[in-house]
């Protein structure tokens, strides 16, 4: 089944832990800032349901899961800024299209 170039990338426990750490940190930040969850936790792991396994024990000691990397509300604030800019650009383009269509009538 050789249909083209193949790239083999080694997966190591370290790379899996690093990617899982980033993903769990992002998910915990999203849950803390965006969802109406009543949790008074201070660590990202307080917002995640992690099974009791050896992998989760090693994951719980990772730096990104010991404390949040951004202050509470920062994610929502940045999202709202980006969304407002998107709406503004859409509004300006739609108005410009409308004005140009009226000029050519």
Brief synopsis:
With 105 residues, the chain is mainly alpha-helical. It is 55% helix and 0% strand.
Task: Characterise this structure.
With 105 residues, the protein is mostly helical. The protein folds into two domains: 11-70; 73-105. It is 55% helix and 0% strand. It has three helices and no strands. The chain has helices at residues 13-34, 54-59, 74-103. The radius of gyration is 22 Å and the shape is flat. The termini are far apart. The model has no long low-confidence stretch (mean pLDDT 84).
Could you give the order of the helices and strands?
Answer: HHH
Structural class of the helix and strand makeup? mainly alpha
Domains counted in the coordinates: how many?
A: 2
N-to-C span: 59 Å
Task: Quote the average pLDDT.
Answer: 84
> Stretches where pLDDT falls below 50 for ≥5 residues?
none
Write the layout of secondary structure elements.
Blueprint: H1 13-34, H2 54-59, H3 74-103
Features:
105 residues, mainly alpha, 2 domains, 0% strand
